[in-house]
Amino acid sequence: MLRLTEIKLPLKKYTDDDLRDAIVERLAIAPVDLLNFTVFRRGYDARKRSNIFFVFTLDVELKDEAAVVKRLKAANNDAHIGPTPDTRYKFVTQAPANLQSRPVVIGTGPCGLLAGLILAQMGFRPIILERGKAVRERTKDTWGLWRNNKLNPESNVQFGEGGAGTFSDGKLYSQIKDPQHHGRKVLEEFVKAGAPEEIIYVSKPHIGTFRLVKMVEAMRTTITELGGEIRFGSKVDRVIIENGQVEGVELAGGETIASQHVVLAIGHSARDTFQMLHDQGVYIEAKPFSIGFRVEHPQALIDKARFGPNAGNELLGAADYKLVHHCANGRSAYSFCMCPGGQVVAATSEEGRVVTNGMSQYSRAERNANAALVVNVNPEDFPGDFKTNPLAGIDFQRQWESAAFVAGGSSYAAPAQRIGDFLAGQPSTALGEVDPSYQPGVHMTDLASCVPPYVIEALREAIPAFDKQIRGFAMADAVLTGVETRTSSPIRITRNAECQSLNTRGLYPAGEGAGYAGGILSAAVDGIKVAEQVALSIVGQKSAG
Question: How far apart are CA 192 and CA 399, in angstroms?
Answer without folding.
Answer: 43
